[in-house]
Design a protein that fits this description.
Helix 1 runs parallel beside helix 4 (54-87). This protein has two domains: 2-87; 107-335, 2-Layer Sandwich (BirA Bifunctional Protein, domain 2). The protein contains eleven helices and nine strands. The strands form two sheets. A seven-stranded mixed sheet has the order 1-4-5-9-8-7-6, with helices on both faces. With 336 residues, it is an alpha+beta fold.
């Protein structure tokens, strides 16, 4: 049996040395070391070896298996090196590597992060709430009557359960006031949803950043000063801003804010970016009623809601809001 082991080992090593491809190497491994391989067949003869010879024969078998395995590994390494060399044959390895394209944040993310940084420097803290809301937080708490057009299913996305996709991030303001005593100074960036027809300045799913400041003796001057500072910090000190009287059920008095858009190839034009106003006392009454506390009695405050897509349009002179949702890599690459 010793001679058989030596013979199988010698033949295997010689065979492996002459193999020229990976497929042949695998076939050799199976035919030598597999379940029906030549070395395995010899190993099965151990049952007939006298007891006193088994340690020596067993050691020879182990040595043969180790030698053949080492030969297989060495030949595999050599063959792989040959394949690698063939793969780069004719290639100038001294040439510089190709530059990989780098990604970047979406323009809405960029303007949101910048807006949050400015407002946080002004003392506002971040707050958050769910996208799927109930009518109380979206409408009732904010003094929106049942017959208001915004509550119609033609304007709002309702679920069969009675829940809805929030139409504004003002819902976070109501939730915060239910849990926190004044003073309150928060901002709430997030998504909002309305059944608006999509055009150059409107989307049905969009992004807002809402703000709320409630304390004692907060005035319209505080509101205008805060928003003018914010917009000029975002767009530059020469930015033209105007406030127009408006109506919102949750603020009184109320304003809409316009900023002049300077889009390339177009004449300057005013674009609405926000609604704002002094918090309607009815909102404070609703919050105190639902909480059973009188935390907001005698308070005043202001609230504002700004469209982030509109901010991006003004920030970079984008002429059509739909460009922000089309995911055209050529357009988005400008902001990297």
């Amino acid at each position: 049996m010793k001679e058989q082991i030596a013979s199988v080992q010698a033949e295997a090593v010689a065979r492996i040395a002459g193999i020229t491809d990976m497929k042949g190497l695998e076939e050799a491994r199976v035919s030598i070391l597999g379940k029906k391989g030549s070395l395995t067949q010899v190993q099965q003869g151990m049952r007939n070896v006298p007891k006193e010879d088994k340690p020596v024969v067993g050691a020879l078998l182990n040595e043969a298996r180790a030698t053949i395995t080492a030969a297989l590994d060495a030949r595999k390494t050599a063959l792989q090196a040959e394949l690698d060399a063939a793969a780069v044959a004719g290639t100038d390895l001294t040439l510089p590597g190709a530059t990989l394209a780098t990604g970047g944040l979406h323009p809405i993310s960029l303007v949101r992060d910048e807006a949050v940084r400015i407002l946080r420097r002004m003392g506002f803290t971040l707050s958050d709430g769910p996208d799927i809301e109930d009518e109380w937080h979206c409408f009732d708490a904010l003094n929106t009557p049942e017959d208001h057009p915004a509550r119609n299913e033609k304007d709002t996305f309702y679920f069969d359960s009675g829940k809805l996709l929030r139409t504004q991030t003002s819902t976070v303001q109501a939730r915060t006031m239910e849990k926190q005593a004044p003073p309150v100074r928060i901002i709430c960036p997030g998504s909002a949803f309305r059944r608006d027809a999509i055009d150059a300045t409107h989307l049905s799913a969009f992004n807002q950043i809402e703000g709320l400041y409630v304390d004692r003796a907060v005035s319209v001057g505080d509101l205008k000063g805060t928003l003018e500072y914010f917009l000029k910090a975002l767009f530059g000190s020469e930015t033209a801003v105007r406030f127009r009287p408006h109506f919102f059920p949750f603020t009184e008095p109320s304003f809409e804010i316009d900023v002049q858009l300077q889009a390339a190839g177009q004449a300057p034009r005013w674009i609405e970016i926000a609604g704002c106003g002094m918090v309607n006392p009815a909102v404070f009454e609703n919050i105190d009623k639902v909480t059973g506390k009188q935390l907001y009695t005698g308070c005043t405050g202001f609230a504002f809601g700004i469209g982030l897509e509109r901010l991006a349009m003004i920030r970079w002179g984008i002429r059509d809001i739909r460009l922000l949702i089309e995911n055209d890599a050529r357009f988005l690459a400008q902001f990297h």
